[in-house]
Design goal:
By secondary structure, the chain is of the alpha/beta class. It has helices at 2-7, 27-40, 59-73, 88-100, 118-131, 142-145, 151-157, 193-197, 213-224, 228-244, 252-260, 277-289; strands spanning 10-14, 44-46, 80-82, 105-109, 136-140, 163-168, 184-187, 203-206.
Amino acid sequence: MSQAMNDLRGSLVALVTPMTASGAIDWAALDGLVDWHLEAGTHGIVPVGTTGESATLTHAEHKQVIEAVVRRVNGRVPVVAGTGANATAEAIELTRPAQGDGADYCLSGTPYYNKPTQEGLYRHYCAIAEAVDLPMVLYNVPPRTSCDMEAATVARLSAVDSIVGIKEACGDPSRVAEIKALFVLLSGEDAQTLTMAGYSAIGAISVTANVLPAAMAEFCQAFINGDDDKARELDIKLQPIHEALFMETSPIPTKWALNAMGRIDVGIRLPLVELTAPVQAEVRKRLETLGVL
């Protein structure tokens, strides 16, 4: 647990998976994004999560992206590999190679669509933890999965040695008051990160960090250091971007922004499509206000 408390803090980017216009993974751009984040002070890299379009990657691509990120990071910051699935056996199948490829942690979201009971959630995570010896961060994101992991279930799972933390994105920051003392707590909602810091969150797995890595790292470091004034000042500055990046389904706005910044190509996989023109204009305006474009 002490190692996780040291590793899983600050701004951990929920990294997009860059693609060409045809939808193929752009490996050179992926290396470039990792290099940029390391230079900008991002505290950890989270490949192939929801923001990384894990739902539309093949298992082979999933493994290859993790391999590529681990290789490029080369031990400089923790790599937290997204390995969640709505079938327990599939989640185990995705987690095993992540361990072999050198990921430091895995991030495992609650199963989507099949809506397990709390007992089912408990057994799901216990089965993964028993099958694979890789420290696990739980991920609760009911708006995406229609499955909400209750605080009592989180408390039960905190007793499993290899489960070291949770990314909480239920949309209710006060919920974390019930779980804050259990293990590492990370914000899964950029706009609510400062509020969650008041409930002992020590970092965020951030979408906004894709576009503003240095600013998110500075913001997270400020509240970790107890510099409340600086954290509030940066939070006010970042809120318009948090909002903009969710004006359409994530990661659509984020990938558009990174393309506009010259960081990646335009590729995104169906059923996601390019950002609509009116939202493009609004995202551009907000990024220009911060001098990003």
